[in-house]
What we know:
The protein is an alpha+beta fold. It contains five helices and two strands. It has a single domain (9-134, 144-148), classed as Rossmann fold, CATH 3.40.50. A two-stranded antiparallel ribbon has the order 1-2. It is globular.
Amino acid sequence: LGVPYEQWKVLNEIDAGVCEEMTYEEIQDNYPLEFALRDQDKYRYRYPKGESYEDLVQRLEPVIMELERQENVLVICHQAVMRCLLAYFLDKAAEQLPYLKCPLHTVLKLTPVAYGCKVESIFLNVAAVNTHRDRPQNVDISRPPEEALVTVPAHQ
């Protein structure tokens, strides 16, 4: 781009621990209890040997403070990180944060307005799967696998 830039390790994606690089289906197959526990409280759930959204928010606090001091900034980051940043700037509750929609290959432009931010989405012309998963109705530990996976988006 020909502009100054910095790479910050703190902007890395949420650490999924033992579930890193697994699909939703693989996590349900290999760790059904963990899959259910995450569905019960996605914000506070911590992956085994990994992080929770709550941990990620704490990790991002210095970034948020730095963004508050800047004027125009372009942040390129992963979806969980973007959800945390959006939740902060849009004043969303912790329970809403993990379910904020952040499509892949999309620029989200935040413009400060009275009592919040205006969000504009600029979709880039890049083919990508939908990775957004709504909270399932049945979050019981003893639910059948097909109910656990009902909100998993279709993918190839």
